[in-house]
Amino acid sequence: MKNSEKIPKIQRLKSEKAIQHIFAVGQSLFFYPLKIQYKLEEGSVSAQKTALQFGVSVSKKSFKRAVDRNLIKRRLRECLRKQKFVLEDSLAIENKNLKCMIIFVAKEEIDYDTLFTSMTVLIKKINKKISSKGHVLPKEE
Q1: How crowded is the C-beta side of 25, counted as CA atoms within 13 Å?
Q2: Measured between alpha carbons, how far is residue 6 from residues 23, 26, 66, 85 in Å?
Q3: pTM score of the predicted model
Q4: What is the CATH number of domain 10-130?
Q5: How far does Cα 88 stand from its chain's mean position?
Q6: How is the chain split into domains, by residue range?
Q7: 28-79, pLDDT tens digit by residue?
Q8: Distance of alpha carbon 136 from alpha carbon 28, whole angstroms
Q9: Is the pLDDT confidence value at 118 over 50?
Q10: Nearest CA-CA partner of 55 in 67, 44, 39, 43
């Protein structure tokens, strides 16, 4: 695995204050079984050293066992890791920052392929919002 394919520590969204801000003033997108709560901001990357920050969340109410929650969170992070370059490219072109929380809303465990598909749909929706000025983005493979 190349270094560029890893999720750097700086891209993890851990600040309770930042997460509360996303839920207070951010927007949301939904495509079963995922909901993304996000905040898109104008600004340069140098302020926080990365244009993309994210966190994942799985309900303790729906999945009592930590091993079940952790499995789903690992799958979500992997789905985003494989597709984050699309967001990073458009954020760099538009000079914007994106902070988001990915929330798993299903009550049962979902297979990886379904998660990957719904993550793809949500990333495309966010990408449209990022590049609303009509810039041409690179084609996805």
Answers
A1: 7
A2: 27, 26, 24, 11
A3: 0.83
A4: 3.30.230.10
A5: 11
A6: 10-130
A7: 999 999 999 999 988 765 555 788 999 999 999 999 999 999 999 999 999 9
A8: 24
A9: yes
A10: 39
